[in-house]
Write a structure and sequence with these properties.
263 residues, alpha+beta, 6-stranded mixed sheet, 3 helices, 15 strands
């Protein structure tokens, strides 16, 4: 009887030792992987144009892949540079497709209205820092990089216009430096001002065409041209007839005697 009892206890102990542990394999919590900004580039400057309110500004970034399977939504966030904080942004706007897309498309008017709603006055330039926030409901993550952008609110504006002539050419043109009857003619399409805006005035700007050490044309700083000439009719026309002597005299003042110009 004693032997039977001991055998029974031992059998029970072996059976209990062979049972599988019951672990909970349910996944809890969602993570987000880092992502980066695409456009616009750092230090982009945007002047919102009252004459072209439907012009678009596009902001884009890479996708933040979910830790498990819950795809995040996105918001563009922007704060005043230096004094603002992206944790409490000045602007917070959901991306396209109700926050599902990895881009945000805003018209000039939409962006202008958003800044106006935050008390930014007409024509004021706002220097901002911006990023994108991904949110999957249980976790939020800012993009791994941030960028600067400068946006000027609408005040005045004008539609874009196109240069018509003379055509761009690498051919050297000789001019008579004393002629007041021969002229170079420049013309372009008209630009339309914003509703209520002032009538447009035009100037033809001239800059020296320069090459770098690799033979590539250097960018022109049109804010500092060699010289400028008003269009005909006191600047109101979309045509400028500039006599050879006026061009020659302007170049001589800059001590340029053999030149290639961009206008």
């Amino acid at each position: 009887m004693k032997k039977i009892l001991m055998l029974t206890v031992l059998t029970a102990m072996i059976f209990a030792g062979c049972q599988k542990a019951d672990f909970d394999s349910t996944v809890t919590g969602e993570g987000l992987n880092t992502f980066t900004l695409n456009t616009p580039l750092a230090n982009t400057i945007i002047a919102l144009n009252a004459a072209t309110p439907t012009s678009k500004v596009e902001i884009s970034w890479t996708a933040s892949k979910p830790g498990v399977d819950k795809v995040p939504t996105y918001k563009w966030v922007a704060a005043l540079r230096g004094t603002g904080n992206l944790d409490a942004p000045l602007l917070e706007i959901a991306s396209d497709n109700s926050g599902k897309d990895t881009k945000l498309t805003l018209t000039h008017k939409q962006l202008d209205d958003a800044l106006k709603a935050k008390g930014i006055a007409d024509g004021v330039k706002s220097e901002l820092i911006w990023s994108v926030k991904a949110d999957n409901g249980s976790f939020q993550l800012l993009s791994s990089d941030t960028r600067n952008i400068t946006i000027t609110r609408m005040k005045d504006g004008a539609t874009t216009f196109i240069l018509l002539g003379p055509a761009s050419s690498g051919t050297v043109q000789a001019i008579d430096p004393n002629s007041t009857t021969q002229a170079m003619k420049f013309n372009w399409t008209k630009s339309i001002p914003a509703a209520g805006g002032s009538a447009m005035k035009y100037k033809v700007l001239f800059a020296e065409r320069k090459l770098d050490d690799k033979g590539n044309v250097r960018p022109v700083d049109w804010t500092n041209p060699l010289f400028a000439v008003n269009a005909d009719n006191s600047g109101s026309d979309s045509l400028a007839s500039i006599v050879y002597k006026a061009i020659s005299d302007s170049l001589t003042k800059k001590r340029i005697y053999q030149y290639r110009i961009a206008g």
